[in-house]
Amino acid sequence: MKRILLLLLVALSLFSCDKEDVVVPQRHAGRTVLAFFWADNDLNNVLRNNIKTMMSGLQEMKDSATLVVYWDGYSSDKNWSTPSIVTYTTNGKGSINNYSKEAIEELCADVNTTIYDLIGLGDLKKTYPSQVSTEKQVMQTVISDMMGYYPSESYGIIFGSHGSGWLPTITGTRSIGVDGAYANTAMIPELAEVLGTVNSRKFDFVLFDACMMGGAEVYYELRNVTEYCIASVLDVPGAGFPYGSLMPYLYENNIKDYLSAICKIYIDTYNNNAWGTVTAVDCNQMDGLAAATRNVILANQDRLKSVNTSNLQEYGRKRGSNDSFVGVGYDMVQFTETLCGGEAPAEFMEQFNKTVIYTDYTPNVSASYYRIDGDNYCGMGMYIPNSSTTSKYLLWNNYFKSSIAWYHAAGWEETESIWGK
Question: pLDDT tens digits for 10-23?
């Protein structure tokens, strides 16, 4: 009899359903932050710790908020061996998911608690088979899944891993992300295409917790997919961004008003005990900056060959015996001043100052090769193509010309007959 009644109820529910009865998941008000970690490399432990500090930052929130994490770490990590999407939601009162603030504090106080116990408080949404998470289609699928598990009015996204700016995979180094091997890395034009595909509107921000991503080439590629970008022209210290302090700012409605605070927290954290540069850029201004740069280069093209890059502040510096990134980027304003005979045009500086919302550096550093010349620091790096015939620069120049939009927008294409000789 119960089975007959159950079937009758199911049938009635089917007959009563029409298009008006279909429930569409409601988009959550405010911003959701996504964190995409390529952690199958030697940053595995520190990136895992970033999730812990992100959780502590969420506990400081005064309103409800959700963090969606994608993790792809060591397959040999028995506690987290598969690529996964995990969510962490706070109610604005210190809780994480279904765990109260008091319960989490008690867990943290227990000497037997491991980091896996803490990050394990997350809500596991999906696991994937082993995959190369730097591949374009994988990134697109995963980020789309992340957004699908928590539909929101808007999104910001954090990328954590190794990085080297606009550099191509073909150099054997890396661009953004390392998944198991340096050959498995994402290229910036592909990443920009992915972000534009998964989100019909621009991301509120992209934060690169990765080295050397603060170049004009990167910001220009992202101009159509994000409002703002936060990045460093130099290496990022291994511990990464201090999420415990800055997470609440990432959820503020008008994120532009809090970019300076986010950057200042970063600099204050590493001043006197490490090193650091950080810049917040309005990517909507990058078309204007490209046009201003192009005007300067074309108006002074006869001086291009006379610019000695060894006299410019360089951000892909030699670190001990590692010179793989030397030449990747020079200080943009200092280059412009040098090219123009000592002073950058007022029109250029006006546009530059519209583009760079905030930048700063640590004056006291623990390693001499990270010391910044403050008189020649603008916070944005720029590649200067050259006529070198070494294999490294031939690869860089060819990729720069074939794949990086800044090359065409900023005047380098029109002047190749000069600098390319």
Answer: 333 333 344 344 34
Angle at the Cα of 381 from the Cα atoms of 378 and 382, rounded to 5 degrees: 125
Write out the H or E segment, with its range, that includes residue 228: strand 226-231
What is the C-alpha separation between 258 and 264, in angstroms, rounded?
A: 10
**Residue 304, exposed/middle/buried by CB under 10 A (0-12, 13-18, 19+)?**
middle
Position 368 scores a pLDDT of 86
Query: CA 166, CA 28: separation in Å to the nearest integer?
Result: 34
> For residues 39 and 62, is the Cβ–Cβ distance under 8 A?
no
Domain residue limits, the chain: 29-283, 287-419
3 state DSSP class of 314: strand
Comparing 395 with 249, the larger pLDDT belongs to 249
Both tokens assigned to 320:
């001990």
Cα–Cα distance, 238 to 384 (Å, whole number): 28
SS (H, E, C) 154-175: EEEEEEECCECCCCCHHHCCCC
Q: How far apart are CA 144 and CA 49, in angstroms?
A: 25
Compute CA distances 45 → 124, 396, 418, whole Å.
20, 32, 47
Type of residue at 78? K
Tokens of 312: 């410019």
Structure-model confidence comparison of residues 277 and 22, the more confident one:
277
**Integer angstrom CA distances of residue 61 from 126, 256, 265:** 26, 18, 17
Q: Name the residue type at position 412.
A: W
Give 78's DSSP letter: T
Contact 107, 117 (CB under 8 A): yes
User: Strands 152-160, 28-38: parallel, antiparallel or unpaired by DSSP?
Assistant: parallel
**Beta-sheet strand order (sheet of 65-72):** 123-127, 84-90, 65-72, 28-38, 152-160, 203-209, 226-231, 277-282, 356-361
Amino acid at 86: V
Give residue 320's pLDDT band: very low, low, confident or very high (50, 70, 90).
confident
Environment class of residue 301 by beta-carbon count within 10 Å: exposed (0-12), middle (13-18) or buried (19+)? middle
Tell me the chain's radius of gyration from C-alpha atoms: 24
